[in-house]
Amino acid sequence: MEYRIRKATLSDITHIEMLIGESARELSSEYYSKEQVEGALQAALGVDSQLIRDQSYFVIEDDDLLIACGGWSFRRTLFGSDRQSNRSPKELNPDIDAAKIRAFFVKPSYARQGLGSVLMRECEKEARARGFKALELMATLPGIKLYKRHGFIGEKTIEYPVTETLSITFVPMKRDL
Asked: What is the DSSP string of 12-26?
């Protein structure tokens, strides 16, 4: 199969949002309740347009169909969408900070075909080129297998509130480059 990877543009946002929703709803269903997923889509999962403006977010296409997305960041924010208020645009110091792996999502019908690994290799390459020596991320439960395959080590799980009464389990993970 021939897919095309490219840097995301602001004009991709609507399609990325749709992909994130479809991916989260279907690929997370065995790990989280429907209510948790819907809450996470409002509170934690979504497009961070800063990544697109920084040219550090990628999309993979099959013809004109967006089938995967993901990126990395040289900024402090570890995860989250434009809807979150606790984001920090402050740049990281590659000598002491880890670059952030951000917002990997795959269209369910294309899952488990290596697209996450394609995105990860691209992110690793760019983070290295910018001088980073380590990576960190906040994994959803369905993403842990991918990240472990790429050498990430999980820390203790955290519960992130997505509504006043619901939370979602995330796993902070790290690795050296």
From this structure: GHHHHHHHHHHHHHH
Domain edges within the chain = 4-77+89-176
Place of tokens 């065995």: 30
What are 27-41's pLDDT values in tens digits?
A: 999 999 999 999 999
Interhelix angle for 34-43 vs 13-27, to 10°? Answer: 150
Percent of the chain at pLDDT > 70 equals 98
Distance, in Å, from the CA atom of 42 to the CA atom of 38, rounded to the nearest integer, reads 7
Flag whether the pTM goes above 0.90.
yes
- 6 exposed, middle or buried (CB, 10 Å; 0-12, 13-18, 19+)? exposed
Separation between Cα atoms, residue 107 and residue 1, nearest integer Å: 15
- 4-77+89-176: CATH topology is Aminopeptidase (3.40.630)
